[in-house]
Specification:
This protein has 1327 residues and is α+β, with helices and mostly antiparallel strands. Helix content is 33%, strand content 27%. An eight-stranded mixed beta sheet has the order 46-45-44-43-47-48-49-50, with no helix packed on it.
Length: 1327
């Protein structure tokens, strides 16, 4: 679908500067991008030969060509008759700045140039080789390491780069037997199906006619050499005297590999496709000339017929072939014409026919720029470059008809892909032209199509009808002779506007020109052309806007010029350099120029977007492109700095999609939300990318076109929730419009059944155009309301129901949708749907049967059967049961038995059958079957519903409470059982339950014990109180134990030790004074203080010693982790020997030794390991995790496990110290009050010392917590102390991946919040 479009065209007249001498050979210097050519030798110039360089100088105003003479020297004749020698081959070595010239007489000359601008006298000329027999052909290998020459003695000579002989072979008649050709007829007519009776018995592998290899009468007798692109084989086309013309294939070592099969009238032309699969030659028949192809083994492999140019007789002209560097274009030279052929989908297209003034001598392709070449004739050099470009129409709706025009010589193939997708080489319309087409362009609105050909311009009008596009009709035509007076004009490109202004970029005698003509529709005539000097402009840039009247060109420096007004207007935006593919778009006054370079760099103005683009196109919403990674990407259009290229993530990003390898963009149709791609073979594929489809659906929803939006959701399998989620308020306000547009009953049901609570605009179809995370306040309010409020599904279903129920007439479809709306709710409203069916039973039984069928289709029929039973509508139950697979012998007797029961008993039976025991119990209450209700409550544990039902029936309520209390007691819920018994004034049972409940209910137990009738005896009450006191003392509730001893046992002697045990010294002293027992102060209180002082001092001393031991050890371990991470994270092994990695690893990511680096264990690079990270993770079984936990619990010395153990130990110690602080404060206060100041001062000092040590330990052991974000670095600074800065720089620190893993291993505990401990406040009294 791509055409060849010219992007460079320069003509140099060599005859004017060199006295009319003919150019005899050309080659490219790819390093300097210059052309080398030779003039002569010529008998008129004493057999001198000139070596020239042709340079291009690109300026803003022009592109000038300079010809520099490299050297000129005489070439003596080596023939006996004294004939002038001829140049056979010219080749330049870019690496050594040398040029090799092979002469027919046998001389091989190397001309070496020097850096700078030397004079011709400083150029070194050396005859480096000589062949005795006259040379007929010569060619260098693609890698420039071998030279192959053929001689008139029928020999083939292989020479090295230093011109040493590698091998020489004689071309003999026996070579023709080197290949045993066996053709099975692939692709031939004989092997195709021709009907049942047509030549059914004939062997298809035997052709109807066997060629004998007859020599063409027009054969020039020349020998041709062509290398395969990789340089492994070389083909030689030569005549075997008296036999036939044959193509011999030699290996690089000079060994004959094969010979071609006999072909009648094959000529000397030969070109091996660089890709290596085909060799091309010419077969000149009586009525036509074919380009024929051979495989390496010599077998034929297809052909195509050349099209005869005007005024040229194909049977007489010499024809030559030449492939370009990337095997995409085959150049055919015929007389003064050069035809450029490409192949797509097994059809050969004539893309360009270039005409020059005289007979074409050579065409030389650039070795690196695949579509650049030089054409030389007797006195001119034409340098041209082309690019592949799709001639497509507008991509702006509603003009996005997918119009594409394909040039095929004098035939133009036009297709509107929005109407039909026809595989090439077929097309929707094929229009014959008067001469081969050069370029084609569409007007911005696809109304007109301008075709540029060799002699002029044809303007076509393309109209549409209700059935689609009509055939384009010729609207007008003009020739270049009208308004142009020069001798020679080469048309290059064309552009046309909606105002019928046609602009042609041409190359004339004065240089590049822009010819502009305006077409008058009324007179069907073109105005006289106006001429604008183009300077360095090389082509037109495409415009995105369909209403634009501008015509934009690009010059060699990437600047954009407007030429629509017949004046050169420079645009404010530009590219940094010449970009062959360019498109200009205007986003509300913000002009952006999108351009693609030859090497795949895509630019927006001067900003580089990405470096691996293969094709692109621009729609009003997206910049669409393909990449060398075989991905299709969408970039939302915005200002240049905001253009965001999506990542290569087709799995999660809708803007990226995988495509077939090598696919390129042809056109896009945003109206249809589709793209057309062309595969490398040439076949087409229409796809509907998710990004285009979702963007199109959003626009349709915003335009209230729910019908088309729904259709696209259905055909493209887009979640239909987007119809609501994109604009929720708009949808709810236009539910009636939605239903009116959809109309179809099944489609409405499909929409309702597709609803779910997920907001697809935030999950599946997040709008990638909006910056992620930035939402408006309105959207945030809506989302928060949606999350907290009712279900989205129910909101939509209720809105649909309200619209459907407002209709005056409700037909079958409306009722079906109403039922669907009820059933699709979450949870499904089965009862509401069945109520609709039940109401229909009274009005129309047939309609009710259809409704039942529909509701049974939507939901499980067994569930509906139970729901119908729950409505107590037995006729409805029977109707639903008939739709199920139930046995009538089962449900009919059951329904009949229900009919015979009273109403309440029937409801009870139904609810009991459905296991709705709560409702069944309510029916028993309504029937006053209280005893049955009590048994039913016990059977099904319905105590709470029963208490609710009988809360106003005091008599029965007490019975149900007793049953409930017994139930709670049987479940060991003694406290609740005691509460129920106490509410029933059953204090004996309440005391039993409270006592069984434990120490938390000692108050309730003592209360109910004293409320019993008959009351407890004093001894029993004392025994109960003593038991409770002992229980709470064992539970360390010393205040409660003291309360029981004081208030219920009357023993202050027993209460004071309990208070002192709980560090409640103030209460103990108060109780002594309250009970006038001051004698207990020195005996019990002071004794309690002494005991508490001893235990507290011992506790604080243990904490101090533990901190002094563990904190330095942690510092030592961290120093070891920095110095020897392998030993730290794995531990030292006995003997220090490496241990094979044969132990699985737990999920903590600890690693082993075994010769592997600590941080590269899972890379699979060492010791032949084939394990991967995933493999290692899969081995973290439960057994290994238990083993890891045991290691952690043991805290093995010298490893990370010890550090982790010590850190946790310090955490626990700090928490214990913080918990003991209130007790120590009360102890200090008690000692001071009892005049034990020295003891108080000592314990306060010890406590302050321990607390200060804890604060210091927290800061060091937990560096990552709190406000300290330094992490490990902070710890290292502390452990380093005041060390030398140089020592710190030498300290080992992991970097790169090692640092990432090291931080991961430490992050588990280093980021934990440190324990909280406050500083100790010292009593001022203690000094």
């Amino acid at each position: 679908m791509r055409n060849l479009r010219n992007i460079r065209h320069n003509v140099y007249n060599a005859g004017a500067g060199f006295e009319g001498r003919a150019i005899t050979s050309t080659c490219w210097d790819p390093a300097k991008d210059e052309l080398l050519c030779t003039l002569g030798p010529d008998a008129d110039d004493l057999s001198r030969i000139w070596l020239l360089r042709i340079r291009e100088h690109v300026r803003a105003s022009s592109i000038d060509i300079e010809c520099q003479s490299v050297v000129r020297w005489p070439v003596p004749s080596t023939t006996p008759d004294g004939a002038v020698d001829k140049v056979v081959d010219l080749h330049h070595f870019a690496d050594s700045s040398g040029t090799c010239i092979v002469f027919e007489g046998g001389d091989i000359v190397v001309v070496r140039e020097f850096e700078g601008q030397p004079s011709p006298d400083d150029v070194e000329i050396e005859i480096t080789g000589y062949v005795d027999e006259r040379i007929t052909a010569a060619s260098w290998s693609p890698d420039e390491e071998l030279l192959v020459v053929t001689t008139k003695a029928k020999t083939v000579v292989f020479m090295s780069r230093t011109f040493d002989l590698v091998t020489d072979e004689i071309m003999e008649a026996e070579d023709l037997d080197a290949s045993k050709h066996v053709s099975v007829g692939w692709g031939k007519k004989e092997t195709q199906f021709q009907g049942r009776g047509a030549k059914a018995l004939r062997d298809p592998t035997i052709p109807e006619k066997i060629d004998q290899g007859l020599i063409s009468p027009a054969d020039d007798g020349k020998t041709s050499i062509s290398w395969r692109g990789d340089g492994a084989y070389v083909a030689i086309n030569a005549i075997e005297e008296g036999v036939r013309r044959v193509i011999r294939v030699y290996s690089r070592a000079g060994v004959l590999d094969g010979a071609s099969e006999p072909v009648d009238y094959m000529e000397s032309a030969l070109s091996w496709r660089p890709a290596g699969n085909l060799m091309a030659s010419i077969q000149r028949l009586k009525d036509r000339v074919d380009v024929i192809f051979f495989e390496r083994n010599g077998l034929r492999h297809g052909q195509f017929t050349l099209r005869s140019p005007e005024d040229i007789e194909m049977t007489k002209e010499e024809i030559r072939l030449s492939w370009n560097a990337d095997s995409t274009v085959l150049a055919v030279t015929i007389g003064n014409r050069v035809q450029l052929w490409t192949m797509g989908n097994y059809h050969w297209y004539l893309k360009q026919e270039i005409s020059v003034e005289n007979q074409v001598k050579h065409i030389t392709w650039h070795p690196e720029k695949s579509l650049r070449f030089a054409i030389t004739n007797a006195g001119n050099i034409v340098q041209a470059e082309y690019c592949f470009e799709v001639a497509r129409g507008s991509l702006t709706p509603p003009y996005d008809h997918g119009a594409v025009a394909v040039i095929d010589g004098q035939n133009l193939k036009v297709t509107a892909f929005r109407t039909i997708n026809i595989p090439p080489p077929m097309a929707m319309f094929e229009m014959p032209l008067s001469s081969p087409a050069v370029d084609v362009a569409f007007s911005p609105a696809n109304t007109f199509m301008a075709v540029l050909h060799q002699t002029g311009v044809s303007l076509y009008q393309w109209r549409t009808s209700e059935k689609g596009f009509l055939r384009p009709r010729l609207f007008g035509a003009t020739t270049f002779t009208k308004g142009y007076t020069g001798k020679h004009l080469s048309p290059l490109q064309i552009a046309v506007t909606e105002a019928l202004s046609v602009h042609c970029l041409c190359s004339g005698d004065e240089g590049p020109l822009v010819l502009s003509q305006i077409f008058d529709p009324s007179s069907r005539e073109f105005s006289s052309s106006t001429t604008l000097y183009a300077g360095s402009m090389f082509g037109f840039s495409r415009l995105t806007q369909a209403i634009s009247e501008d015509v934009v060109t690009q010059d060699a420096f990437g600047r954009l010029h407007g030429v629509a007004s017949e004046a050169d207007e420079l645009y404010s935006v530009r590219h940094d350099s010449q970009l062959p593919w360019s498109e200009v778009l205007d986003l509300a006054g913000n002009v952006i120029a999108i351009g693609l370079s030859r090497n795949g760099h895509l630019y927006a103005n001067t900003r580089l977007l990405l470096k691996n683009c293969t094709s692109f196109l621009v729609t009003p919403a997206h910049l669409i492109l393909t990449t060398t990674n075989h991905l299709l990407k969408f970039i939302h259009l915005a200002d240049v700095d905001s253009l965001e290229v999506p990542p290569d993530d087709p799995e999660t990003d809708e803007r990226c999609r995988s495509i077939e390898r090598g696919a390129r963009l042809v056109t896009a149709m945003p109206t249809n939300m589709s793209l057309v791609l062309q595969m490398p073979r040439g076949n087409l594929e229409t796809i509907y990318p998710r990004a285009m489809v979702v963007a199109g659906i959003r626009k349709l929803v915003e335009a209230l076109d729910y019908k088309r939006a729904f259709a696209f959701c259905r055909t493209q399998r887009v979640d239909m929730n987007i119809l609501y989620d994109h604009k929720p308020e708009q949808f709810l306000a236009n539910v009636g419009l939605f239903l009116e547009q959809i109309r179809d009953i099944a489609n409405i049901d499909l929409f309702l059944s597709s609803l779910r609570d997920e907001d697809v605009t935030q999950t599946m179809y997040r709008d990638t155009k909006s910056p992620q995370g930035l939402t408006t306040a309105e959207e945030l309010d809506h989302r928060s309301t949606a999350e907290k409020g009712p279900s989205k599904v129910n909101i939509v279903c209720d809105a649909v129901l309200s619209c459907l129920q407002e209709r005056k007439t409700k037909d079958h479809g409306t009722l079906q949708n109403i039922i669907s709306a009820h059933i699709c709710k979450q949870p499904p409203a089965f009862e509401d749907g069945l109520h609709v069916v039940a109401s229909l039973l009274k009005e129309d039984e047939k309609l009710a049967e259809k409704a039942v069928e529909h509701i049974c289709f939507l939901a499980d029929v067994n569930t509906l059967y139970d729901e119908a039973l729950g409505l107590y509508h037995l006729d409805l139950v029977l109707l639903v049961a008939q739709q199920s697979q139930r046995d009538p012998r089962e449900y009919l007797p059951f329904i009949q038995s229900l009919h015979q029961l009273p109403k309440l008993r029937m409801k009870f039976a139904i609810d009991d059958h459905l296991n709705r025991h709560g409702k069944a119990l309510s029916h028993l209450k309504d029937m006053h079957a209280h005893e049955e209700a009590q048994n039913y409550t016990v059977k099904h544990s319905l105590y709470i519903p029963a208490l609710q039902l009988y809360r106003y029936d005091a008599t029965n309520l007490a019975v149900f409470r007793r049953l409930y209390a017994a139930h709670l007691e049987s479940r060991s819920k003694y406290r609740e059982a005691g509460l129920v018994h106490e509410s029933l004034h059953d204090y004996v049972a309440a005391t039993r339950c409270y006592r069984a409940a434990g120490v938390s209910c000692w108050r309730e137990c003592l209360f109910t014990a004293q409320q019993q009738t008959p009351p407890f005896s004093p001894s029993a009450l004392n025994e109960l109180a003593t038991t409770l006191a002992e229980a709470v003392y064992e539970a360390k509730d010393y205040a409660a134990a003291a309360t029981i001893h004081l208030e219920h046992l009357g023993s202050i002697e027993a209460a004071i030790p309990c208070l002192c045990k709980g560090y409640l010294f103030a209460d103990a002293m108060r109780r002594c004074v309250q009970h006038r027992r001051l004698d207990l102060l020195p005996t019990l209180v002071d004794t309690g203080l002494a005991d508490a002082l001893g235990s507290s001092t011992e506790f604080l001393a243990d904490c101090k010693s533990q901190l002094q031991a563990q904190v330095p050890r942690i510092a030592e371990l961290r120093r070891k982790a920095a110095e020897d991470p392998l030993g730290f994270y794995e531990g030292e092994r006995a003997g220090g020997a490496d241990v094979p990695d044969d132990v699985s690893v737990a999920a903590s990511s600890r690693v082993t030794a075994g010769g592997a680096s600590l941080f590269t264990r899972y890379t699979g690079k060492n010791n032949g390991s084939v394990g991967t990270l995933g493999t290692g993770v899969s081995r973290a079984t439960s057994k290994n995790r238990r083993r890891e936990e045991k290691k952690r619990a043991r805290g093995r010395k010298g490893t990370v496990y010890e550090e982790e153990y010590l850190v946790n130990s310090v955490r626990r110690l700090v928490d214990r110290v913080e918990a003991a602080r209130p007790d120590v404060d009360r102890l200090i206060a008690g000692l001071v009050r009892r005049d034990m100041v020295d003891r108080a001062r000592a314990v306060a000092a010890l406590a302050a010392e321990v607390v200060a040590a804890c604060v210091k330990a927290v800061k060091y052991v937990f560096p990552g917590g709190g406000n300290n974000k330094g992490g490990t670095s902070g710890a290292r600074e502390q452990q380093g102390g005041g060390g030398d800065a140089g020592d710190q720089e030498k300290e080992w620190r992991p970097v790169g991946a090692d640092a990432v893993l090291a931080e991961t291993l430490e992050a588990a505990w280093r980021t934990q919040e440190p324990p909280v401990i406050a500083a100790m406040e010292r009593l001022s009294l203690l000094g």
